[in-house]
Write a structure and sequence with these properties.
Blueprint: H1 5-17, H2 20-27, H3 31-45, E1 50-51, E2 57-58, H4 60-80, E3 90-95, H5 97-109, E4 115-120, H6 127-131, E5 137-140, E6 149-163, H7 165-171, H8 178-181, E7 186-188, H9 195-204, E8 212-214, H10 218-226, E9 232-235, H11 236-245, E10 249-250, E11 257-266, H12 274-287
Parallel strand pairs: 3-4, 3-5, 7-8
Antiparallel strand pairs: 1-2, 5-11, 6-9, 6-10, 6-11
Helix pairs in contact: 1-2, 1-3, 1-4, 2-3, 5-12
Length: 293
C-alpha cells in the first residue's frame, strides 16, 4: 500500500505536538488542511489514527505510522544530507530511566543533527517497544535481539543496595539478615522494577516481600535513600559521592548488582543510526562495567 508522504507528515506532527493547530503552524498550512490529510489517511488505511483530545494521541496503528514517517525522514536525511533550512530528523527510542540519569545524555549530545523522542521504560521491558514497532532503537536489559533488530552488548550498570546511616542503625542494628530485610521498608521505582527483588534473592536465596515505597524517579530514589525513607538499588554513578561522603552506605559492600545492558537498533535503520551507535558504545565503555558479575 502506497501512503501519501504529506499525510504521514501531518499525522506525525499531530502526535508529536499534541494538536491539529500546532501541527498546522509547524507545517505552514491551515488546520483544515491538516484535518483533511489525516482523514484521507484514515480512509486509506481503514482505521482511526488519532484520538482527539488535549493532547491528541495516536492509536496503536497511528503511532506505528507516525514512527514510520519519522524513520523515512531520517533515512532521507542520511542519504541526502540535512540542510540548514530543514528540520532535523527525529528518532524515537526506548531507554531505562537510570540509563538516562547516568550516562546517555552525553552520547545523544554527540549527534546534534538529530532530534530525540525518548520513551522511558524498565530495562527488562524496553525491548517490547521494538517488538511492537513503536521505537527504532532501545537500550535494553535483554540479551536476545528483538525481531528485525541488531544487538550490541554495552556493559553492565552497577547498582549498590544503599541506605542512610540512620536508617541502617534503625533497621539493621542486628545485621542485614533475612529477617531484618523482610521487615525494613524498601524503595521500588515502579511495579516493573525487579532490582530490589533480584538483590534480595542474591543475598538471602528467598523471595522476600518487605513493605515498599514506589518512587518513579532516579534522582528521587537517591534522595529518598539519603533521607532514610527506605533502602534501594541505586546506580553507582548516582551515589558515588554520597557513599564517599558517608551520606549513604551499602547494605553489603561485597554484593553489588551488575545489570547487563544492550543497544538494539531496527536493522533497516542501522546505517542511518551508525553515528549514534558509535556514540552510545563509546559512552557505555566509559560509564559501565565491562565485565559483569
Amino acid at each position: 500500500m502506497q501512503l501519501d508522504s504529506a499525510q504521514l507528515t501531518a499525522l506525525a506532527s499531530i502526535l508529536r505536538l499534541g494538536s491539529f493547530d500546532a501541527a498546522a503552524a509547524a507545517l505552514g498550512v491551515t488546520p483544515s488542511a491538516i484535518s483533511q490529510r489525516v482523514k484521507a489517511l484514515e480512509d486509506r488505511v481503514g482505521t482511526t489514527l488519532v484520538l482527539r483530545g488535549q493532547p491528541c494521541t495516536g492509536t496503536p496503528t497511528g503511532q506505528r505510522l507516525a514512527k514510520h514517517a519519522e524513520d523515512v525522514a531520517l533515512l532521507e536525511a542520511q542519504a541526502l544530507g540535512v540542510s540548514g533550512n530543514t528540520s532535523p530528523p527525529r528518532l524515537r527510542l526506548a531507554v531505562p530511566a537510570d540509563v538516562l540519569a547516568t550516562w546517555l545524555i552525553p552520547a545523544l549530545a554527540q549527534i546534534p543533527e538529530m532530534l530525540f523522542d525518548l520513551v522511558i521504560d524498565d530495562q527488562d521491558t524496553s525491548a517490547d517497544w521494538l517488538r511492537r514497532g513503536e521505537v527504532s532503537a532501545a537500550v535494553t536489559g535483554q540479551a536476545r535481539a528483538a525481531p528485525g533488530c541488531d544487538l550490541r552488548p554495552l556493559g553492565a550498570l552497577r547498582y549498590h543496595p544503599t541506605a542512610s546511616p540512620a536508617y541502617m542503625k534503625k533497621w539493621f542494628a542486628q545485621g542485614v539478615t533475612t529477617e531484618t530485610l523482610g521487615q525494613a521498608p524498601m524503595l521500588t521505582f515502579n511495579r516493573k522494577d525487579q532490582l530490589q527483588g533480584r538483590w534480595l534473592m542474591q543475598k538471602t536465596g528467598q523471595r522476600l516481600t518487605p513493605p515498599s515505597h514506589h518512587l518513579p524517579s532516579s534522582h528521587g530514589f537517591v534522595a529518598a535513600a539519603r533521607e532514610g525513607l527506605g533502602w534501594g538499588m541505586n546506580p553507582a554513578p548516582l551515589v558515588a559521592e554520597d557513599m564517599e561522603m558517608g551520606r549513604l552506605v551499602s547494605l553489603d559492600e561485597a554484593l553489588p548488582l551488575d545489570v547487563p545492558l544492550y543497544w538494539q537498533v531496527a536493522r533497516i535503520m542501522a546505517p542511518a543510526l551508525a553515528p549514534l551507535t558509535a556514540a552510545i558504545r563509546a559512552a557505555a565503555r566509559e560509564a559501565l562495567v565491562q565485565e559483569a558479575r
